[in-house]
Amino acid sequence: MSSRRIAVFVDGDNIRAQHSDQVLFEACQLGQVSIARVYADLNQRSDWLNKPGYRLMHAGTGKNAADFLLSIDAMELALEGGVGTFVIATSDGDFTHLGQRMLERGLHVLGLGTEKTPERFRLACTKFIPLTNRNDFDSMETTEGGCSAFDVKIRSMIAQHSMNGQGMRVAELGPKMHKAHGIKISTYPEKTWRAYLAARPLLYELEPRGPEAKVRFRPEGFALQ
Q1: Residue 47, pLDDT above cutoff 90
Q2: In degrees rounded to 5, what are phi and psi of residue 201?
Q3: pLDDT on residue 223
Q4: Fewest beta carbons less than 10 Å away: which of 21, 58, 116, 140?
Q5: Taken in order 143, 139, 33, 159, is the CA torsion positive or negative?
Q6: Which residues is 112 bridged to in the sheet?
Q7: At a CB cut-off of 8 Å and minimum separation 6, what does 88 contact?
């Protein structure tokens, strides 16, 4: 199992929020996602505001403001050390220099972008994966022991509503998942959230039954095995 910490940086002015699940999914396959940020001008209405699992970074107005702040933060983190893999989600070739500099420092760079992404940025990454336009991303399969895109959504929801690191109430998970993603657990084979979570002990830790029972995700379970 990989123990590498992963940092995710999304060019929110360039990548649409519909790709949020795939971005986290691909990052999860590489190790533990410790940082997930979206950079955008938040004075403008953005669908990223409704996507759990990300920290939104207001870059302000002005041409390339998000690009500059993203690059500064990413290089600062790279110089600090402790993070060995960076996921950069953008279709903007201007990030080529950022990718190249990270490669020169021996870091692993996963690039994510649409089909229009310039070849120069693709070559500045250790690996580049095109973002899919499919709406049924949950149907993507994973390698044995990996986590599904559905589980990435659950992990993000738990992380967003965790109480002082102790997890979130199981009773709240269903309503929040339905509101955010339109998911009804009754349509899944397990039928209930407790049954679904209990069937995946490598991914989730459940407290005994009760109105205040909480669920926590296991970071090591979401790392590549």
Answers
A1: no
A2: -65, -20
A3: 64
A4: 116
A5: negative
A6: 89, 129
A7: 9, 11, 74, 95, 98, 99, 109, 110, 111, 112, 125
Set out the domains of the chain in order of their start, with CATH numbers. Answer: 5-130 (3.40.50.1010), 147-222 (3.30.420)
Q: Which two tokens stand for residue 18?
A: 């519909």
pTM of this prediction? 0.64
Burial (CB count <10 Å: 0-12, 13-18, 19+), residue 99:
buried
Phi/psi for 10 (5° steps) reads -115, 130
- Per-residue model confidence (pLDDT) at position 141: 42
CA-only gyration radius of the chain, Å: 18
DSSP, res 215? E
Q: Please tell me the distance from the alpha carbon of residue 215 to that of residue 55, in angstroms, as a whole number.
A: 22
pLDDT tens digit sequence for 144-165: 345 677 888 899 899 888 887 7
Angstrom distance (rounded) from CA 41 to CA 31: 29
The tokens for 174 are 């269903």
Q: Encode burial over 7-37: b for 16+ CB neighbours within 10 A, e otherwise.
A: bbbbbbbbbebebbbbbbbbbbbbbbbebbb
User: What is the distance, to the nearest Å, from the Cα of residue 182 to the centroid of all Cα atoms in its chain?
Assistant: 19
Q: Hey, which residues does 206 pair with through a beta bridge?
A: 215
